[in-house]
UniProtKB/TrEMBL annotation:
The keyword Acyltransferase does not apply. InterPro entries: ATP-NAD_kinase_N (IPR017438), Diacylglycerol_kinase_cat_dom (IPR001206), Lipid_Phosphate_FormReg (IPR050187), NAD/diacylglycerol_kinase_sf (IPR016064), YegS/DAGK_C (IPR045540). One of its GO terms (molecular function) is kinase activity. SMART domains: DAGKc. Keywords: ATP-binding, Kinase, Nucleotide-binding, Transferase. The keyword Nucleotide-binding applies. Signal peptide: none annotated. This is Diacylglycerol kinase. It comes from the Bacteria. Residues 12-139 form the DAGKc domain.
Length: 313
């Protein structure tokens, strides 16, 4: 197998794969049978595992790469399983068949389309390194692929859990509902004092949101860090202060109305970040964390922890 570095091609003899499938993701439009048939049609050996069943993360060491069919949450579950492996264990490249609600990770990697159009690209793919963010101060082994942050986004998760059965069935309906709920939160959310030290430089103020981002977008497909690159060894710290509340409301309204207006927010690029936030609304990716009291945390970027198969084009 070729070296796992950006720009290196996948070896043409990589044929054996495991399909990690979330049958509950997105609009439930792809069945186990359909996906396995499609993958085998491309000439790949395919072992099936549902991430909803026990033992899905017991990977055969003869496997060449893993296929993840699901959304951002499914990608995180697979990454969590890989992070638990010993450093000397075989590390598997990841191929994505995105069919979640938001698919922010796939979007960051420019992976889009129907599985029948994506799977042929694996024969001539290249490996894209993908960093992760590691969080210290909130328990062992806490990491994120998309973002870690405080304020309005973890509150959105809390509110969406309460109305989960009333927000529509399709991914588009769910995204629109989430954006509308977030707008209501932004209009009333109390700005909190926060001190951020990014690579030794201090920033402080009252914020409704601070997000340490590894990719361009989070939540309901909202691009907050347009220049973010998940393989560059940096994190993008995006801050929305009390003074920028109105600007963020305008941003959300434009997205709710499907307008393509350009917005940018205060952003810092850093490898290490310390945060002291006077509040308890916090999340790592799609997981809302429960805090008894405000806690100071430190975040560092860990480069090249995952490798994704992407189109050479």
């Amino acid at each position: 197998m070729v070296l796992m570095k950006k720009g290196y091609a996948i070896h043409p003899d990589m044929k054996k794969t495991i399909l990690l499938h979330n049958p509950k993701a997105g609009d439930n439009e792809f069945s186990r049978k359909e996906l396995v048939k499609l993958i085998k049609k491309e000439g790949f050996e395919c072992q099936y595992a549902s991430v909803k069943e026990e033992g899905w993360d017991e990977f055969d060491e003869e496997t060449d790469f893993l296929i993840i069919a699901g959304g951002d949450g499914t990608v995180r579950r697979a990454a969590k399983a890989l992070m638990k492996r010993k450093r000397l264990d075989k590390q598997f490249p990841l191929a994505l068949l995105p069919h979640g609600t938001a698919n922010n990770i796939a979007t960051a990697l420019k992976i889009d389309g129907h599985p029948k159009d994506i799977s042929p690209q694996w024969h001539h793919a290249q490996l894209q390194p993908f960093d992760i963010g590691r969080v210290h101060g909130l328990g062992d082994d806490l990491f994120f692929l998309e973002a870690f942050g405080y304020g309005i986004f973890p509150r959105l998760m809390k509110d969406m859990d309460k109305i989960e059965g009333d927000i529509g069935d399709t991914a588009e309906e769910k995204l629109k509902a989430a954006r509308a709920v977030l707008l209501e939160i932004v209009q009333s959310y109390e700005a909190r004092p926060c001190t951020i030290v990014a690579d030794g430089v201090e920033h402080a103020g009252n914020y409704i949101m601070v997000e340490i981002m590894n990719i361009r977008s989070i939540g309901p497909n909202l691009v907050l860090a347009g220049e973010a690159d998940p393989g560059d060894g940096y994190l993008d710290v995006v801050m929305v202060s009390e003074a920028s509340r109105g600007k963020f409301e305008s941003f959300l309204l434009s997205r709710i109305n499907d307008e393509e207006k350009e917005f940018s927010f205060s952003t810092i690029r850093a490898k290490k970040v310390k945060i002291s936030w006077d509040g308890k609304d916090v999340h790592a990716d799609d997981e809302r964390l429960k805090l008894e009291k405000p806690v100071d945390v430190e975040i560092e970027v860990l480069p090249d922890m995952l490798q994704f198969m992407i189109s050479r084009n």
